UniProtKB/TrEMBL annotation, chains A, B:
CDD domains registered for this protein in UniProt: ATZ_TRZ_like
Swiss-Prot/TrEMBL keywords: Hydrolase, Metal-binding, Zinc
Lineage of the species this protein comes from: Bacteria, Bacillati, Bacillota, Bacilli, Bacillales
Residues that, per the record, bind substrate: 94, 146, 186, 216, 301
Reactions listed under catalytic activity: S-methyl-5'-thioadenosine + H2O + H(+) = S-methyl-5'-thioinosine + NH4(+); S-adenosyl-L-homocysteine + H2O + H(+) = S-inosyl-L-homocysteine + NH4(+)
Binding site for Zn(2+): 65, 67, 213, 301
Pfam families: Amidohydro_1
Name of the protein in its database record: 5-methylthioadenosine/S-adenosylhomocysteine deaminase
Gene behind the chain: mtaD
GO molecular function terms attached to this record: 5'-methylthioadenosine deaminase activity; metal ion binding; S-adenosylhomocysteine deaminase activity
Protein task: Catalyzes the deamination of 5-methylthioadenosine and S-adenosyl-L-homocysteine into 5-methylthioinosine and S-inosyl-L-homocysteine, respectively. Is also able to deaminate adenosine.
Source organism of this protein record: Paenibacillus sedimenti
Enzymatic class: hydrolase
Obligatory cofactor(s): Zn(2+)
Co-factor binding comment: Binds 1 zinc ion per subunit.
Length: 431, 431
């Protein structure tokens, strides 16, 4: 089993009692086996000894909501009203996506994400076999789900559900366990109630969690009330969704009572601040959710509504906007934003051994080059990560004990080929 | 006179009729003399011909409010209530700053800013001779002012005003005209009215503009009403401040009536979204200000309240937060945010020949490496700059016709020495 020692580094462990450690870390196989100030003796049986001077090591970032292939639509129709953007720009182009388009769009996003320190993603899209193969090849971790929209004839509903079920069954636990799966009704407003109930039944049968969009816009909440007489939380509760472990994307417009129900069922929220701001969906009640004990993690959403996939920015936005909007300068401190981007992200998708640098945890971690002005003075590195760092500061990325990025270069994917194929896909879609 | 041709580039000119140009640009001495799709003949009399393939050229960023030396306080006491942060953290440390501390703090910030594409800054601080010398050495452009706080005995008021006056007189137009100066009462709440009037008189005598903080927090606005019976805008108007060309920092809490007065006097606002959010000051009424015809530019404020000095982030925040808070997805489009960070920034400090890439304009421009996933597909580069780019994408920086950064390296400053001296300054301040 390969054994690696990293010494002279600064480590942000996410350990509650002592987050910042100046010292060293040992990785054996896919696990961290030691982290501490002292170098463990003897030092003669390592396959590799890395000098971590001027590097900051931290858990890899966990992006809990996205549609990687939508990088194909980055900058395609920005700054439009939401309905025009969706109906005239996004949907017509997405309808043209082939599995090859999804492949190259997803791979381009994966290159951007892993080079930027994201080690785990949630991805909900179509042509998911391509997504799973891309994740497998990249070496990163993925919690994947075929999102189904049920506004279609029964036979198409059936076909989509069958496809989603097969995908979830076939890929769960694959790629050395780096891939897990979920079942996904796309949203309450895109799936009839009986279809949602059928999806929940499959999740029960396969013993899988559920991922869905919920309460992203106030308009959608009102439409739910108009159509079903219930706000989305009560509606999904009634349909049995929360009888399964559930991760909900957005949850922008929720009442105190709804927060209480989400807490009761331990429903996890993926907060997507960049996307919510850009699409003018509003500002989620994250401080209230966190205070109520709801697990809140962070997601970029697709690149069409963000427009980059930099999780440092999502942590920063989460730390900043809730202060500014609430008028409370301690609304979400840096340490909490960092947990949202790492440990709470992992917990939100039921990964118990990811998100901290501690013995026994998976070796999913990244290194930042801190020999740069914006990391000085060497005061509070948690603050520097959240308020000052960006994806471009990441130099090394390790997932499951394997290096997938080193010195800023992808080791598992051919970036140049991916960029070329991606551009060809986009040109074809336009043409 | 040195003559340079850049060919095969993509240029964001900020020209209203045609912003994006695929072609080339010619620089002669300190000016742009040509920009267009065709390469001007003949090509044999250039000192340098640059291949701009895979680069995006745009006007340098203009940061219209900051305190560069405050990088010494980056991460020192984050996530505290405003008064505790100021009274227990910022002020006691700042009181200890020597001119050498200001020198190294300012130089560190300048390294961060120029490498990140900022070519012009406004700086308001103490020990301004050090700041001016740092700007002169760096090759960047600076609009500088000694900010005076008047809550002190008359003889100290006199000494500060004398110092500010001498600084403004001595440095205006220096460094080949790259340095201009202003007069600055720090803020209405830190300067007695008669002291502000004396500063205004000096600005008249020297024919210089005024820069001040105004209406950053609602608490400060209320205190102004309580003490003087007027909100800050009327108060400053009454004291004659707006009889001089004026640039105001923040302007977060302004009424419709105040916006009208600001417009009437052509007062310019430096919007500092990152700082305003982090300090929980609120969200400025930028869409309303812009619609009323007020010039709004962007500033980072000091690194203690930001915490990096990345102007791409300020453009992105300006484009995002006003959408999210207003519920209007077209509140501030990308193109407007870009103008706020460049052309309107230059206009806000009365630089008429900076902020656009057009014949006759100063050669103040930057190049971004766009051969990266987050700049694909090649759809809308204005959108990519605002929603996707960051300081770390900048590779080349030219100011006044001189390269000050190339391939990501500072040519005018010794970055390694500056980092070392900065750390020593910080250690002494702590000790």
């Amino acid at each position: 089993m390969k054994k690696t020692l990293i010494k002279n580094g600064i480590f942000i462990s996410n350990n509650e009692t002592k987050t910042t450690i100046n010292g060293c870390m040992v990785i054996e196989g896919d696990r961290i086996t030691y982290i501490g100030e002292q170098t463990p003796a003897p030092q003669d049986n390592y396959n590799e000894i890395i000098d971590g001077t001027n590097k900051l090591y931290m858990p890899g970032l966990v992006n809990t909501h996205g549609h990687a292939a939508m990088s194909l639509l980055r900058g395609y129709g920005d700054d439009l009203a939401l309905q025009i953007w969706l109906e005239e720009k996004m949907w017509p182009m997405e309808a043209k996506f082939s599995s090859q388009d999804v492949k190259w769009g997803t791979l381009l996003s994966i290159v951007e994400m892993i080079k930027g320190g994201t080690t785990t993603i949630v991805d909900m899209y179509d042509h998911m076999n391509e997504v799973a193969m891309a994740i497998e090849q990249s070496g990163m971790r993925g919690c994947l789900t075929r999102g189904v929209i049920g506004l279609c004839p029964p036979e198409i509903q059936d076909a989509k559900l069958k496809e989603a079920t097969e995908f979830a069954r076939n890929w769960h636990g694959k790629a050395d366990g780096r891939i897990t799966t979920m079942m996904s009704p796309h949203a309450p407003y895109t799936c009839p109630p009986d279809y949602i109930e059928r999806i929940v039944q499959v999740a029960h049968d396969l013993n899988l969690p559920i991922h869905t969009h919920m309460s992203e816009t106030s308009r959608e909440v009102q439409a739910n009330v108009d159509q079903y007489g219930l706000r989305p939380v009560a509606h999904l509760e009634k349909l049995g969704v929360f009888s399964r472990p559930t991760l909900v994307a957005h949850g922008v417009h929720v009442t105190d009572e709804e927060i209480e129900i989400l807490k009761q069922y331990d429903v996890r929220i993926s907060h997507n601040p960049g996307s919510n701001l850009k699409l003018a969906s509003g500002v989620a009640r994250v401080p209230e959710l966190l205070r109520a004990g709801v697990k809140v993690s962070l997601g970029t959403d697709g690149a069409a509504s963000n427009n980059n996939l930099d999780m440092f920015e999502e942590m920063r936005l989460a730390a900043l906007i809730h202060k500014g909007v609430s008028g409370n300068p301690v609304a979400i401190p840096a340490a909490e934003a960092l947990l949202m981007g790492t440990k709470m992200g992992a917990e939100s998708i039921w990964l118990q051994d990811v998100g901290q640098l501690l013995p026994g945890m998976k070796a999913d971690f990244i290194a930042l080059d801190i020999d740069q002005p914006h990391f000085l003075p060497k005061t509070d590195f948690v603050s520097h990560i959240v308020y000052s760092a960006s994806a471009k500061d990441v130099v090394d990325v390790c997932v499951d004990g394997n290096w997938i990025v080193r010195k800023g270069e992808c080791l598992t994917l051919d970036e140049e080929k991916i960029k070329r194929e991606f551009e060809q896909s986009f040109d074809k879609l336009l043409g």
